[in-house]
Amino acid sequence: MAVTIPGFAEAKDTQKVGKITAVSGSSEVKKSGGTKQIKAFKSMAITQGDTIITGRNGKVNMDLDSDKEVIVGPNTKLVISQLIQNARAMSGKTNLSLLGGSVMVKVKKKLTGDSRFEIKTPTAIMGVMGTQFIVEYREGNSFVGVIEGTVAVSKPDGAQGPSVHANEQVHLNSSGDGVPETLILHDLPLFALEQYAEDVEQMLENHPTPDLQTLKEQLEKVRKEKQQAQGDEQEDEEQPESPVIIYEGTAPSRDRSDRGSSGGGGGSPGGGDPTPVVRPSIVSQGVFHPIPDQRTDLNIELALAGDSLKTVFYSTGERNLEEGTDYRLESGTQSGQQTIVLLKSFLQDRIGDRNSFELKLTFTSGYTLFVTVKAREVKSPQLDIKEFYNNLHVYVPNNKTFILPFTTHIQPNVTDDLIDETQVLQDGVILQRVDFPPYEWKQNDSIMIEENKLKIELGEGIPIGSLIDITVVSNTLKNKETGDVQEEEQRMQELRLEPSANPDFIEVDPINPQEIAINIMGFGFPLRELKLEFPPNDSGPGEAHVLVKGTDYEVNSDESTPSRLTLKSPLIQQLTEYGEYTLRVYLETPEEYQLKIALFRKP
């Protein structure tokens, strides 16, 4: 997995970082260069090369810049092909590839200079110049619906296609041909209709007009119709099986009379309502260990309801189980109950690698009860990716300390008495700078485990700006509570040790000056100096001033949080010139490193 937390580039294009702002339903991200799909979560960093994948009910909201929002609809696969901060254009270059599904885009400011925002499908390229629109690609055809602004469409061969303006749409065939027409609300995907309705509702609150009110009513009508249609489709696909109620003297309504039912015939005497019959049932049942040689006895407790157990038939193996050899019977925890104890010898020798099997229990009354016995869920240690990236400052507090959180308490998986726990960890944990050989552990390095955390402490720090992979080889760890072994390699991929400032673009108001708080992620390196450059003027570059701690700013930091830089209100009050000020933050790194923060006063 990659996470890049960049500072500002001085004279060249650099990769930007977007952020997920909301997630619902089944939504995953495949990070650039990775192979595994990770469950998406709020505040997750999105970088160039990442792929967003949503399921049937999934939706992801992303901010790719301060003025660009992308909403990924259900059943969609979207690749962030390009996400660049251009040194000459504040908004940079963004290129998205829609491989299937639908997205809604809001570009709130008109793009200028050589800034670019494009969405590609296999049949068309949509170029944007400040707009709000929807793109859909399914079954070889593309659709563009524009709410605000203009979208310029190009064909796959680069030839110019139609321009689609506000309140227009176009359906494009596999060759990229199509004719714009008036926007039809029914053609918009449901998630886009819902978002459009929310936007209109907000506009009505701020500037109510008859036209907006009419549009709101139209959107609500179409939204309800599409919701109903979608609900009907899901109901047809997921129609649940009706429950069976067995009555004395009546046959069951479905053909499955031997699963918790007894069969029978004839109507109820006297034509009155039938009387429910109480039958034997399962009170509780255990699960078995997924690894055969770790299985123990398993209990199935029955409520007999006045009946008696006759046989225990192993349906999967097609044979009767033998009492005393395969199972034993014990009294239940309450009167009228009985416990079947499946012996560990049967579970270890007969079940093998199966994760479930079925028993058929017959009773003296002729009643038959089927029981499905399952293996318990395997709880092998897994890296807690969401926790790591949500609290990066905790898990990478400096360039010497790397802490990997897992979903369970962990311990080394020692399989050889001749190898101690330290050796298991050193052999199984690989730290490597990308494009460099694996790191060789030194005497003053340490790898230890604290509850659910794997902690790496290095004697010498990793250079700032490095790209790091940390791999925990399969079978290195196990769940301390269940003993389940880490079966798959766990990897924290392409972690960039690059300091950052959040926020890094701030609008200031010297007329009503307020203190400004900025979080500086410096990976343990403190702030050395701050310089403020005023906007350039007709005579050349603006003046640069070294800021004074205590007068112009304060810094508060401790080991568990990023440095908190506070720009004081008297400093903000001095920013009277219109334009962009540049705040340069220098860190006490071995090689000079600076962050660049833009302070902007609007005309």
Automatic annotation (TrEMBL):
It comes from the Bacteria. Residues 261-273 have a biased composition (Gly residues). Residues 221-280 are annotated as: Disordered. InterPro entries: FecR. Residues 50-151 form the FecR protein domain. This is FecR protein domain-containing protein.
